[in-house]
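Postdoc handover notes: sequence design on the structure in folder B. Input tokens:
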């Protein structure tokens, strides 16, 4: 069973830094003009994520996320909500495990008229649901098993990378990478996202 390793998160951060630095060089003069202005946008997307210790019998699950960002010069401030949800098909009566976060992040962004690359980290609240011990079952031909439903809430360190193509001044498409380091269930993953806002 795949388990999240902290070097996985480090690799994602390094990749984000490489994208950020290479975009700085590629954008050149156009980026410096854009950094004198202010931009804002929202992302919404779906994808997949992996969780330390897994969700149920899986390492991860389906992921949904929403992010709002504002940029002034090359500084970026983001607010996000991300959830990794266990996907159950064969045992719908079991409590579905999940892990989510709400975070406030600060970082750096390179912006041009045709795209952006950014990396940010911050602080957030992490919560979720996990299955506890077996508490009973019902007899019959189709036996149903019941488990205790446990919830948790803690503080974590959210990390994000954004890489978007913005062919229009108000809409773009791209990849939103995310991670969260915490004491309960650290996780990471990616979303294919649509972006709306003031992009030029």
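Designed sequence:
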């Amino acid at each position: 069973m795949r388990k999240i390793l902290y070097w996985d998160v480090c690799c994602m951060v390094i990749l984000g830094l490489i994208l950020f630095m290479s975009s700085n060089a590629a954008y050149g003069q156009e980026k410096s003009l854009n950094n004198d202005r202010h931009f804002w946008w929202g992302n919404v997307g779906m994808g997949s994520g992996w969780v330390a210790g897994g969700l149920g019998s899986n390492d991860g699950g389906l992921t949904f996320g929403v992010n709002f960002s504002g940029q002034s010069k090359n500084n970026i401030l983001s607010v996000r909500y991300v959830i990794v949800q266990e996907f159950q098909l064969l045992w719908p009566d079991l409590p579905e495990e999940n892990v989510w976060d709400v975070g406030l992040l600060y970082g750096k962004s390179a912006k041009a008229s045709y795209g952006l690359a950014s990396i940010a980290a911050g602080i957030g609240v992490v919560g979720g649901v996990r299955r506890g011990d077996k508490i009973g079952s019902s007899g019959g031909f189709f036996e149903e098993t019941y488990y205790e439903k446990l919830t948790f809430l803690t503080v974590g360190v959210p990390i994000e990378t954004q890489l978007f193509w913005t062919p229009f001044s108000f809409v773009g498409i791209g990849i939103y990478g995310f991670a969260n380091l915490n004491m309960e269930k650290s996780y990471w993953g990616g979303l294919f996202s649509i972006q709306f806002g003031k992009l030029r």
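Context for whoever picks this up: DSSP finds one helix and eight strands in the chain. Don't rerun without checking with the PI first.
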